[in-house]
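Here is a tokenized protein:
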Amino acid sequence: MAKKVQSHVDPFYYHYPAGATIVTSHAGGCDNAMAVAWHSAVSREPPLYVISISPERFTHGMLLESGEFTVNFMPADQAELVALVGGSSGSDVDKFDAFSIDAEPGSQVAAPILATAFAGYECRVVGRHTYGDHDLFIGAIMAVQWEESAYTDGRWLDVERLSPIVYLGKDLYGGATPPALIDGDELVRETLGGG
């Protein structure tokens, strides 16, 4: 496949689509929510999850104050909510009130878990590192809340029933169409002739 080459990397959208989440925080008696596409698991044991937040974001200050957050994994039918949350600042609007966000406090942290999320991680900040124009907040996962009906028996998201929301860059959100599922272990066995 022929590729175009450029040394100037902006706009920086070639790694999308990426899973979109809503990260919530609670500080000073207030809840806030923001859309986050830059996030990842970084350790299985102990369970650690990282989110990348610009110091310019209202959420950044809330995370510094509270030292905790939740990561809410959203279905595609919540794309409008994710876009609303992503397109507004908590310094200007109470997003939970303005967008009628239904949530409950976490079981281990004060930051809320969204009722419409199919899963949520409750995290306490155990590290913060600055790289370029963003800070990485590393969270120890204290609890997981998940909707059992959204998952198969093996605890894999049932993508034939529920489409996760994806971020395409430039404030564009959508659903991932049900993919053709490939079992990597089975494919390797078949290809290499193992039993």
